[in-house]
Model the fold of this input.
Amino acid sequence: MNTKAAFKTTIGGQALIEGVMMRGPSKIAVAVRKPTGDIELKVEKAKDLSKKYKILKLPILRGAYKLIDAMIVGVNALMFSASFWDEENSKNNNLEVFMTVSISMLLAVGIFMVIPSVAAGFLKDFFKSSIILNLFEGILRLIIFFIYLKYISKLDDIKRVFEYHGSEHKSIYCYESGEELTIENVKKYPIEHPRCGTSFLFMVMIISIIVLSFFGWPNPIMRILTRILAMPLIAGIAYEVNRYVGKSDSGICKIIRIPGLKIQQIATVREPSDDMIEVAITSLKAVLPTDGESDLWK
Done:
């Protein structure tokens, strides 16, 4: 790859079990380091419904759509990477991963929605303002989020995923800086990236405090229901904010990026090894734009 001026790319990725998924303008690639030491590369054409249904490109709606699409692509990539670590029972392993992800999503709803909402409800006798109650719920949700990230970052298997997360960020940074994608070049770049999914999740937490305040403070069942139903709207707004902050280098945007970068630094990314960087580079190279395609972040 020839060197070029620094820019911001639309290419993004996800750390997997001993691997990295990258999504480019038209392709999705999953590179996995198999138990044998070889790298398995799977490349597929990216399916984008927004090209067929233009309504999905509208602000707010595009954020909700991209979140759902990213979850589907991410789960499929995770199942693919997991299959190599029990090849004889890959079908059962995929089922286990699917069940694990499904249960994890249910637990996430309970931990990040139900518990903070119920806990905030005990303050209703002391504070009548729905804004204060929603603020307390949001703060509690953030505290639980930080504790959760800090806890899982200490697990050995998750540490390796976070190291692959670092390799994903470093390789994209190297590509955006216009340097050739080599292990030595990639190693020079930081593990934190302003357009990381961790920063997006933090933005979702903050936006949810504002949006949910407009729903007042109904009974517990209605609170949980409104929080679930409002999630696409919250994700859509968070996407637009994160999108603008990610592409702008203004002073205020740099300040807004700081919390997300700090969370990455503390919990969700770690310095990768050379072999992890090699996996990320393999995945990234497979999705680079070709035939006049553009991956420029506009």
Summary: The chain has one domain: 12-285. The beta strands are 12-16, 19-23, 27-33, 39-45.
